[in-house]
Design goal:
5-stranded mixed sheet, elongated, 13 helices
């Protein structure tokens, strides 16, 4: 079948957005088809690469805040994206442009891999318009896709090993900084300029993300306990933090542990709160699993210490980067070496 004949086939994918109410991975996978996989067209310094990508993440709530962390390292990226093809183009400018559309080499590369109805993510609006018009393939381009492109640029040498060239310093094909990473850092009190981004900053930011993820995961259970404690024991813990809630569960499990009291921080207990918890403990003897509560407490305590250490190092790194034009030499310690010894 010739190229023109293939282009006349209908390869239209589903609409940009899933139906209302589709928010779980299972629902989105069913809606997208192909196991939730999409193709990603990534332009490298010397050619084009095609990746299979678990595109469900593009449609999940808070996608913009979460996608970037999958591209923190090659091992993490390998769980969601896989190289399907890479070709060097002697004349990239002629591969895709407004005048001649998509040339035979690039068109053949895409059409050989893409499945009927499958989405193709591209790195800019112009490519989207050209490919949709010339090949009849539905293309996806938005802020979430740009997070993927940022990640591919960050890990290009690992994910496209045949690419021997580097992007020029002033390259503007893809964002220099992930929006999701920027939002995370800003939420934790850090203002970072794009030129500060390097491997250490990305790794420290990912550690910060993982710490928040653990707390959020356990908060779902801890928040469920709040109305129960109020209704059954008249203990108002609505405004307690995750660490304070985890300690409260240990007290309710009748575990013999010292609880500091005072009013110097929001995480400290009043003497009245401790007394109420100890008095209520017998009610929860068969309702709470001691091992689970202890595990939650240890994990929250651990990430609290890790997060404190990482934030300290981020402050040093960002301060040092601002004082030198060569940010790659600032904060040279590996973030993995900065973690406290916590059991």
């Amino acid at each position: 079948m010739g190229r023109n004949a293939r282009r006349r086939q209908s390869r239209r994918a589903p609409p940009d957005q899933p139906p209302d109410g589709y928010s779980s991975r299972r629902e989105l996978t069913r809606w997208m088809g192909h196991g939730g996989a999409i193709l990603v067209l990534f332009e490298t310094p010397s050619g084009f690469a095609l990746f299979n990508f678990y595109g469900v993440s593009l449609y999940l709530p808070d996608a913009l805040e979460n996608i970037w962390v999958d591209f923190n390292s090659k091992s993490r990226a390998n769980e969601v994206i896989w190289l399907a093809d890479f070709k060097i183009f002697k004349d990239k400018a002629s591969a895709i442009n407004n005048e001649t559309g998509v040339n035979d080499q690039l068109a053949g590369m895409i059409e050989k891999i893409i499945l009927p109805g499958q989405k193709l993510a591209v790195g800019n609006e112009n490519y989207r318009n050209i490919i949709e018009k010339d090949l009849g393939i539905y293309c996806l381009y938005n802020e979430a896709v740009l997070e993927v492109m940022w990640g591919l640029k960050n890990l290009m040498k690992s994910l496209v090993p045949e690419e021997n060239s580097d992007f020029p310093t002033n390259d503007d094909h893809y964002p220099q900084m992930s929006q999701g990473m920027k939002m995370l850092l800003h939420r934790n009190g850090f203002v970072v300029e794009p030129e500060m981004v390097n491997e250490n900053l990305i790794e420290m930011s990912a550690l910060l993300y993982d710490c928040d993820f653990v707390v959020v995961k356990h908060n779902e259970f801890l928040r469920l306990m709040a109305p129960i404690l109020m209704d059954e024991s008249n203990i108002n813990c609505e405004n307690w933090g995750s660490k304070k809630m985890a300690i409260a569960l240990l007290v309710l499990c009748s575990l013999d542990m010292e609880v500091k009291t005072g009013d110097s921080t929001e995480e400290m207990f009043s003497e009245t709160e401790v007394m109420k918890l100890r008095d209520a403990a017998p009610q929860y003897k068969d309702k709470l699993d001691k091992r689970s509560c202890l595990k939650i407490y240890k994990q929250i305590l651990w990430v609290s210490k890790v997060k404190s250490k990482v934030k300290s190092q981020l402050s040093l790194f960002i301060g040092a980067t601002k004082e030198t034009d060569e940010g790659d030499h600032a904060g040279s310690e590996k973030p993995s070496e900065l973690l406290p010894e916590v059991v």
